[in-house]
Amino acid sequence: MTIGDLIRLMRDGEFHSGEQLGEQLGVSRTAVWKQLKKLEAMDVPLEAVKGLGYRLATPLELLDGADIVARLPRDSRTRLSRLIIEEELASTNALLRERFAQGAGHGEACLAESQSAGRGRRGRGWESPWGRSLMLSVGWRFESGANVLEGLSLAVGVVVAEVLERHGLEVALKWPNDVLLKTPHGLAKLAGILLEVSGDLAGPCEVVVGLGLNVDLPEEIRARIEQPVAAVHDVTPDVSRNRLASELVAGLLDLLSGYEEQGFSTWQQAWMRRHAYADQEIEVIQQSTRYTARVEGIDASGNLLVRHNNEQRRLAGGEISVRGRS
């Protein structure tokens, strides 16, 4: 019995007694009770009524591989070599890196209901409530080397923005890899992107594109995050996780399949139209150095162009962070 098995039985919204759940799952009532306690610890809210049993306080839509693949356009299906869905992983990116080490990985996509060691840029942790986010990774092999990947994380941001905008969300992109939701109270983080590259600058290289997207974010988790955050369901509560997953997989596969020939210049203007801090003053943080600069744009390689003390500076990714100034 897994957490997913238990949730599948309870997602009908009806009350289920521990005895009924045990019979259906082929385990003892004690085993069911232990799993129910795990659900509560994982921020999956339950309702318990004496004499009736337990039910999910909020419906959960579990990931469905057949549904995701069925929604893919024909071209995307041909590009997808394998779809992997797991209930729990340390990291979807790590799994695809392992697949590449085994000689696979190209054209593969991996999704997980939860991950225990998910991380964002610069090693930051990523909160991922069970069954309420999209933790997605896509692997791709490029023949021309890592130097053709300039600006790829920004192009991924455009793909994510386009998918979300089709569902009525108004988003902005923060350089180099955050997707923000525009709210009445300002900008709030909706998704983060993490690219991991192996190989050399001139020869074949392998890329894992990782995306963490908040779909439904409980208040108790928001309270633990030290920045404004948002979720898709804040704006469109009825949108399907599986539909979002399918559209994101399709968009990323289409992007990756043509990026070697097109490069970032194809996506540059689309990114600029969504730039969260266009023509604004920002705070630039580079290790122990901080300074204020005005954003002037991005170049064809995805570098951020800023002006500081009447001098234009070109910022690459790596250990540089930028923040808006209120």
How is the topology of this model organized?
Layout: H1 3-10, H2 18-25, H3 29-41, E1 46-49, E2 53-56, H4 65-71, H5 74-79, E3 82-89, H6 92-101, E4 108-115, E5 133-142, H7 152-165, E6 171-174, E7 178-183, E8 186-199, E9 205-214, H8 219-222, H9 241-262, H10 265-273, E10 281-286, E11 289-298, E12 304-308, E13 311-315, E14 320-324
Parallel strand pairs: 3-4
Antiparallel strand pairs: 1-2, 4-5, 5-9, 6-7, 7-8, 8-9, 10-11, 10-14, 11-12, 12-13
Helix pairs in contact: 2-3, 4-9, 7-9, 7-10
Keywords: ATP-binding, Biotin, DNA-binding, Ligase, Nucleotide-binding, Repressor, Transcription, Transcription regulation
EC number: 6.3.4.15
GO cellular component, one term: cytoplasm
Provide an overview of this structure:
The chain is of the alpha+beta class. The chain folds into three domains: 3-56, Arc Repressor Mutant, subunit A (Orthogonal Bundle); 65-273, 2-Layer Sandwich (BirA Bifunctional Protein, domain 2), CATH 3.30.930; 281-324, SH3 type barrels. 31% of the residues lie in helices and 30% in strands. The chain has helices at residues 3-10, 18-25, 29-41, 65-71, 74-79, 92-101, 152-165, 219-222, 241-262, 265-273; strands at residues 46-49, 53-56, 82-89, 108-115, 133-142, 171-174, 178-183, 186-199, 205-214, 281-286, 289-298, 304-308, 311-315, 320-324. A seven-stranded mixed β-sheet has the order 3-4-5-9-8-7-6, with helices on both faces. Strands 13-12-11-10-14 form a five-stranded antiparallel β-sheet, with no helix packed on it. Strand 10 and strand 11 (289-298) form a beta hairpin. It is globular. The model has no long low-confidence stretch (mean pLDDT 91). InterPro entries: aa-tRNA-synth_II/BPL/LPL, Bifunct_BirA, Biotin_CoA_COase_ligase, BPL_C, BPL_LPL_catalytic, HTH_11, Transcriptional_repressor_C, WH-like_DNA-bd_sf. Belongs to the biotin--protein ligase family. It catalyses: biotin + L-lysyl-[protein] + ATP = N(6)-biotinyl-L-lysyl-[protein] + AMP + diphosphate + H(+). One of its GO terms (molecular function) is biotin--[biotin carboxyl-carrier protein] ligase activity.
